[in-house]
Amino acid sequence: MRAVNLLPRDQKRTVKKESVPVLVGACAGVLVAALLGAMFMMGSGKIAAQQRKLDDLNRRYDALPPPPAGPSAAQQQLAGQQSARVTALSTALSSRVAWDRVFRQFSLVLPEDVWLTTLTAKSPISPATNAASSSGGAPSQFTLQGRTYSHDGVARLLSRLQLVPDLTNVQLVSSTLSKVGGQDVVEFSISADIAVAGSPSS
Question: Is 39 in a helix, a strand, or coil?
């Protein structure tokens, strides 16, 4: 008598086909869980590093010395006085007249046939000369009287004085022909103003 297999032939294949999706799902779940765990560990590490950095910055901030106190009233007053003195000194220096330069320039332009009898120079920052200049009067800060042999010599001196940078408003006050010791001479008087640094004329 021949043996007969009563079990269905496709049962094992069905079992294998049904177990494959379960296995794939389990592996995927384990992989997702591992990935989430790795991301959580990385995030926790970054947070811990930032927290340590913040704690270190807080310790440095706490170790800083306290800010110095502001200047006292006396110090502020001294600073104001110093500023006023510096301003006054700057003003004085800006209006200072270099008399050595003025007379050196004047000596270079003085003709050989002209000689002086008097010369008067006043500071342009004195109250008297400032009042005269502001009122539009005749120049009086630099005045000179002298003699020469002709009116041409006086004109030559006037033209040369106008070339001196430190002299402004050069004017002829008088020029008269006279006789001195039997010699005909021309006596003249010339006045000018001193140019101050920063003034429009300079």
Answer: helix
- Which letter, b or e, does each residue of 134-157 get, where b requires 16 or more Cβ atoms within 10 Å of its Cβ? eeeeebbbbbbbbbbeeeebbebb
Among the listed residues 145, 146, 144, the one whose alpha carbon sits nearest the alpha carbon of residue 115: 146
pLDDT of the residue at 145: 94
The yes-or-no verdict on residue 22 having pLDDT over 80 is no
| CB burial string 72-87: b at 16+ within 10 A, e below | eeeeeeeeeeeeeeee
Burial readout 43-69 (b: 16 or more C-beta within 10 A, e: otherwise): eeeeeeeeeeeeeeeeeeeeeeeeeee
Q: Where are the alpha helices (DSSP H) in the chain?
A: 11-63, 73-94, 99-109, 127-134, 151-161
Three-class DSSP category at 21: helix
Which single residue is written with the structure tokens 């995927």?
Answer: 28
Q: Are 129 and 122 in contact (CB under 8 A)?
A: yes
pLDDT of residue 181: 82
Query: How many beta carbons lie within 10 A of that of residue 1, not counting itself?
Result: 3
What CA–CA distance (Å, rounded) separates 173 from 10? Answer: 143
Segment 29-78, tens digit of pLDDT: 778 788 887 888 887 778 888 888 888 888 888 888 877 777 777 777 77
Q: How far apart are CA 99 and CA 164, in angstroms?
A: 13
